[in-house]
Amino acid sequence: MLLCLAVAGFAAFGSENAAWVLALQSRLACANTVFSLPDTPFMHKIRVADSTQTVEAYNLPEGLRWNARRRLVEGRVATPGEYVYSVEVRNADGSVAFAEGIRLTVSSHLQQPVPHMGWQSWNVLEMGISEEAIREVADALVSGGYRDAGYDCLGIDDAWQAKDGSRDADGVAAIDTVRFPNGLRAVTDYIHSKGLKAGIYTDGGTLTCASGKQGGGTLLGSYGYEPAHAKAFTEWGFDKLKEDWFWKGHGDDSGRLDPASTELAYNLYSRMGNGIKAAGNKILLSMCEWGIHEPWKWGPEAGASSWRMSYDHRDGWMGSFNGGQNSPTQNNGGIGLRNTIDLMRHLWPYAGVNRFNDADMLVVGIRGKGTSSNDLVYGTKGMSDAEYETEFAMWCMWSSPLPLTLDVRSTSINSHDKALLLNKELIALNQDPLGQQAEWIKTVGDLDYYCKDLADGNVAIAVVNLGDDTATYSINVADYDALDTSATYSLRDVINHYDAGTLGASSAKTGSLKSHATVVYRLERQ
Ligand code: GLA
């Protein structure tokens, strides 16, 4: 019998502090604040750390049902509103371990129903940013077909601020009038005139990450002036904000170490989130906290809809320090593709519609010729065709935001890389309205297996070869709870665009994968 208790803490529903504390204190190993567009397929997988425990969801709003076999809530909710449903967790002996409430927001005004796509200035322009360069990029996004493929948000990253550390009367960082002589409104007007959206950058600290870099000067972040910045960014016409986490100038002022607590991180980002709401709620908040304080647990409560889950992703297979792993006490910075995969593998239960884990800017196409994307790489800078395919395929499987950073203005873009980035079949997986980050199914030897549920009831399966040698994979229906052992599925290779036969319980799909390569099949039940 299910417990009909007042689910832990939800007496305080509506109090933002309580909500984020609940999010952090959750004993579930999955999201407990979830989102859906009205009348749109929804899925929420309920997971706990202890595999001997069982789970059950109840008090579900009309339109949703509990799938006990797969341990997930699914369906669609027609009526917008705020809902709470309950999850009960039982021990192996049948006793109740705990029960928790899940907050579901159904709204047609979500910040990020599907991951944002676009282009971000940092990896290529870096300190060379200017109005002229941004206009050229806007033109190239259109003429190169990127906008029409979905890359529709042109993001101005760091270094738009005045180099002398000055601020306006409201406390907002002044604009660099050398780089942007006509201000930023003129730039967003131009970007919008091209049918694009406009993104801007700030830092949660007093200074930005590029502050003090060669040619950087003193670049102000928004610490202490978050609402004023949110208002200014809104007035300047921006649609998206990337808020960084240099954290310099507050707490430990010694540099890049991070002495801050999760509570401080939450407070800092929620000040911006609240500022955005107060200024008319027109801006998508993309947190760039580097994954230090597990932002996938509290990002939505701070008013964000995606968050970086690692330090900066570099144009190489391996990052330079400590294997590129995140650490709360050390800013390692160098996150190669292999490191990103290792960090992302376990984060899938925390992603969903309007709450995406951001694997950072894509380096596909930079080919080792970027600016700081070239730093902190172990071994070779730039990646192989197979590695870039793995990067783009996994960003799509994960439903990570997709900001391009290759120089789209260049007349010598590698044709493999451009075709990859414009691959409609992969982009469709990324933009699938169910918003599911591919579930990590298993690792066998050097091969990682992933499965992504899709809104039409089908799935995509990916296999990644993390090893240095060619390996043979075997996809077996029985390994995937999303698949029906009595059915036959057709397979579509969506990296190479061909129909690849069928899969059924008695016929595993096997194949050979080169080192660091990935295969992605979209399955369709026959
Ligand atoms: C940090 C961020 C990067 C970029 C730079 C800009 O390193 O993580 O994505 O925005 O700052 O200075």
Low-pLDDT sequence parts:
1-16, 250-258
Q: What profile does the largest beta sheet have? A: 8 strands, parallel
What is the percentage of strand-forming residues?
A: 15-25%
**How would you sum up the global shape?**
globular
From the N-terminal CA to the C-terminal CA, the straight-line distance is 39 Å
Number of helices: 12
Q: Radius of gyration from the CA trace?
A: 23 Å
Number of strands: 25
- Give the neighbour order of strands across the main sheet: 15-13-12-11-10-9-8-17
Derived from helix and strand composition plus strand pairing, the structural class reads alpha/beta
List each distinct ligand once. Answer: alpha-D-galactopyranose
Mean pLDDT: 92
Concise structural overview:
With 526 residues, the chain is of the alpha/beta class. The chain has twelve helices and 25 strands.
Give an overview of the whole structure:
It is a single chain. Helix 7 links the parallel strand 11 and strand 12. The chain is of the alpha/beta class and 526 residues long. An eight-stranded parallel beta sheet has the order 15-13-12-11-10-9-8-17. A six-stranded antiparallel beta sheet has the order 18-19-20-25-22-23, with helices on one face. The chain contains twelve helices and 25 strands. Helix content is 20%, strand content 25%. The radius of gyration is 23 Å and the shape is globular. Alpha-D-galactopyranose binds next to loops.
